Structure formats: structure tokens, C-alpha cells
Amino acid sequence: MMIDTHCHLNKEDYENLDQVIKNMGNNIMIVSTASPQDIEEVINLCETHENIYGTIGIHPEFADTYTEDDLKRVEQYLNHPKVVGIGEIGLDYHYTKENKEKQKELFIKQINLANQYKKTIVIHTRDATLDTYNILETVKEPNIKCDLHCYSGSLEMAKNFIKLNATLGIGGVLTFKNEKKLKEIVQALDLKYFVLETDSPYLTPEPYRGHKNEPKNIYYVAQKIAELKDKNIEEILEITTQNAKKQFDIK
Ligand code: NI
Prior knowledge:
Elements: E1 3-7, H1 17-22, E2 28-32, H2 39-48, E3 52-56, H3 68-77, E4 83-92, H4 100-117, E5 120-126, H5 129-139, E6 146-148, H6 155-163, E7 166-170, H7 181-188, E8 194-196, H8 218-229, H9 233-247
Parallel strand pairs: 1-2, 2-3, 3-4, 4-5, 5-6, 6-7, 7-8
Helix pairs in contact: 4-5, 8-9
Nickel (II) ion binds next to loops.
């Protein structure tokens, strides 16, 4: 069993989305919204596939353009039985630094929803690690879990996030030849802090880098972790599956 804890499965991104889903067999996918327009599509996938769960939220990229209605729709679906988290939400200063305050305001509003509805938070953070940490530390209730999707910070910050009840989402970047930092983090920390993700259709792992990514490719991420930890792949899949089930309250 394996769980892709973070992927985007929009019909418009795949020639044959049904096949991509079938390729995962009985393995689990947690599909995330990329834009507020995806919310209903994610809910629909959850309702039509037993092995698909969802996280919904407003990405920081939409801090200037989201509407109150978008936020209401997020809140409305947090009660849905297949919605296991709010996300991806967070801060992105790579995309733009112009609207930092608006991004923070949107992030805080959605952390408050996570507190209220007891949902795991899936975090997108890019060039904004310290602000992300400070907001989580002050706004998130301690018992609320979070997952740093596609973790790209330092080992030191990873240790701080772990104290805030976080897992680190490890994806295709780990398999890239010139990626050193993430490999060091995987070697340094206990396996219990990691979950697997693809971030499909992006960040395809080696040996398929350059092609469109799909959930079944988390196998190659697990394989890389096995190599770095000097363990067998079955053990990596078993432990990361248990971690994901725990972090997202999946039975
Ligand atoms: Ni994503």
C-alpha cells in the first residue's frame, strides 16, 4: 500500500485521467485544490472513488483575487467526510512579495478554519519559511496537525516544524541529481516524520523527469528514500503509509 499525500488531478491536465487513477490500483490519493475553481472537481473525485480523499483551500497565489464566496465554499466542504484537510494554503514570496500582508491574512483565516473544524493543514511555503513558521506557531492550535507539502527548507527549520505536529512531504525533488539538502534531511531525520507525495502533474521523479507526473510515481520517491536510509522499499512504503493515515485521520 502507498499513499500519495498531495497531487492535483485536473481533467484538463491529463489526456486520460481515468487511466491515471486506475494506475494507482487500490492505493490512496489525496487530491488538493490548486485554485478555488477546483473545489467542486476535487469533491467530485472524492465522491466517485473510494481511494481518493481531498484537501481544499485557497492557495496564496490567489490572495489578491479570491472572493468571500470562495472562502465560504472551503468552509462548507470542510464537513465533507472525504475532505481530510485544508490546503494547500500558505505563503509564497517567490511568486510575489508585493502582497505579503494579504497572503498572511488569508493564511491566518484558513488556519482558524482548521482549528475550528479540526482539520490537518497542508502547507505551501516558498521563500517564506520563517513567516510561515511564526504564523503557524502563534495561530495554529497545538493539537492540529500539518504537512509541509514539498518541503524545501533547512534541516534546522524541519526540526522546528516537527515540534508543531508537522510531517514533511517528500516528492520527486529528492530524486534529482543535484539536490543535496533534501537528501541530507531524509538521512538525518526519523522516517516517522515523512509522507510521500508527487505534486502531480509537476515535479516528476527520476527516471521520468521531463514527463508529466502521476501518483503512481511516488514509488520512485520511496525507492530513493530506501536507498538513502539503507532499508528495503516495503518498509519505507509501510511506514510512510502509516504516517499519512495518522496525519490525515484516514482509517
Ligand atoms: Ni501542489
